[in-house]
Write a structure and sequence with these properties.
The chain is mainly alpha-helical. It has 17 helices and five strands. It has two domains: 195 residues, Orthogonal Bundle (Preprotein translocase SecY subunit); 198 residues, Orthogonal Bundle (Preprotein translocase SecY subunit), CATH 1.10.3370.10. The strands form two sheets. It has a three-stranded antiparallel sheet with strand order 4-1-5. It has a two-stranded antiparallel ribbon with strand order 2-3. A hairpin with a 2-residue loop joins strand 2 and strand 3.
């Protein structure tokens, strides 16, 4: 077996080809971020977005990799696809037809994926029309209009351009998943977030050169960043393993079962969905207030901006709510208990059926509390660093959870390719192997 390390990646032709293919598609995506939509005054748009910090546009701009503030062909980013996927997941609980498809295996998965694509196009059209109409009323702080020639011709071109851009990003993500190293949609979001790192480093060096930040503060900040990333990796891979025993059964002349295994329950089952939903809901009033000059509405909006105590309390409360809500929607203890019973499995000391479902639900409720506390702590961290320690860039929150989680999953994909071809991978021989989040 060859020694571990990154050099082994390029000793496997198929993995090397997949990595190069993935990097090529991500480069295509980053080029598209800089291709502008026709009919826009770029300078006026940049001036407008400069005053939109702390609104819902900031979240969408992060997920689009900065494409929204440039209003490029990829301005909608992959958010319509994510929204459509979440809507389909929620509908599987309420719509019997979708619930049946979910249980039909590969055929059902393909149908749900097809519905997700249709939903992505519909949401892109709606959002594209809303953006085009909104742009026509936008002006820069100096009074220059953002749209050069407003009207239905501009709206139609914008809707077609943005919908085509999102559809193309969706296709890129699917190609990376199938022919690249996997997790295509996640890698596209990852690439957009990581693209802002050079500017953050540049800001820090500028402040260091002007004396606004000392070298000691930079060192402390670097150590803190390493510790936070290590903590996130530790928790994201954390599991509560419920032991499961399978009874022996004879089929023909062969005996099956009799082995012991476990049911892994993640500490953070809901992933990054809670902070995304929570911040979107809280920032919605601030976004509305930026367009409407009503004093009392703007006062309310300013009181729930990031960094304020009211905002942070509401943010944490919504994160807790969505952690439990999304976990309840995506993980059904009754189905898990029924499947376990059908396969002859049981939890030692717990009767199969309802008792097993209640036990799993009880354990899941407890670890979800820990997951909610963890997500809240990571998401509140940026506000503390910026307001209390004058950190010149946004570190932590949803972006950091996505970056670290996707990095873990990508390394896991590469690790599995290497191990399947008798290479050690990135970890030392005999060490625990990295496991993905999903």
């Amino acid at each position: 077996m060859a020694g571990g390390g990154f050099q082994n990646v390029f000793k496997i032709p198929e993995l090397k080809k997949r990595i190069i293919y993935t990097l090529a598609l991500l480069i295509v995506y980053r080029i598209g971020v800089h291709v502008p939509t026709p009919g826009i005054d770029g300078v006026a748009l940049a001036s407008f977005f400069a005053k939109m910090e702390g609104t819902i546009f900031g979240i969408f701009n992060m997920f689009s990799g900065g494409a929204l503030e440039r209003l490029s062909v990829f301005a909608l980013g992959i958010m319509p696809y994510i929204s459509a996927s979440i809507i389909l997941q929620l509908l599987t609980v309420a719509v019997p037809h979708l619930e049946r498809l979910k249980k039909e295996g590969e055929h059902g998965r393909k149908k749900i994926t097809q519905y997700t694509r249709y939903g992505t196009v519909v949401l892109s059209i709606i959002q594209g029309l809303g953006i085009s109409v909104g742009l026509e009323s936008m002006t820069s702080p100096g009074g220059a209009p953002v749209v050069i020639h407003p009207g239905w011709a501009f709206r139609l071109i914008t809707v077609i351009t943005l919908t085509a851009g999102t559809s193309f990003i969706m296709w890129l993500g699917e190609q990376i998943t199938e022919r690249g190293i996997g997790n295509g949609i996640s890698l596209i979001i990852f690439a957009g977030i990581v693209a802002s790192i050079p500017s953050a480093i540049g800001n820090s060096l500028r402040l260091l050169s002007t004396g606004e930040m000392g070298i000691f503060a930079i060192i402390i900040l670097a150590v803190l960043m390493v510790l936070v990333v290590g903590f996130i990796i530790f928790v994201e891979q954390g599991q509560r393993r419920i032991p499961v025993q399978y009874a022996k059964r004879v089929v023909g002349r062969k005996m099956y079962g009799g082995q012991s295994t476990y049911l892994p329950l993640k500490i953070n089952t809901s992933g990054v969905i809670p902070p995304i939903f929570a911040s979107s809901i809280i920032m919605f009033p601030a976004t509305i207030a930026s367009f409407i000059a009503i004093p009392w509405l703007q006062n309310i909006a300013s009181s729930i901006m990031p960094g304020n105590v009211i905002y942070e309390l509401m943010f944490v409360s919504f994160i807790f709510f969505f952690c439990y809500f999304y976990t309840a929607v995506t993980f059904n203890p009754v189905d898990v208990a029924d499947n376990m019973k059908k396969q002859g499995g049981y939890i030692p000391g717990i009767r199969p059926g309802k008792r097993t479902a209640d036990h799993i639900d009880r354990v899941l409720t407890r670890i979800t509390l820990g997951g909610a506390i963890y997500v809240s702590a990571v998401c509140v961290l940026p506000s503390i660093l910026i307001s209390k320690f004058n950190v010149p860039f946004y570190f932590g929150g949803t972006a950091l959870l996505i970056v670290v989680g996707v990095a873990i999953d990508t390394i896991s994909q590469m690790e599995s390719h290497m191990l399947s071809r008798h290479y050690e991978g990135f970890l030392k021989k005999g060490g625990a192997k990295i496991k993905g989040r999903f």
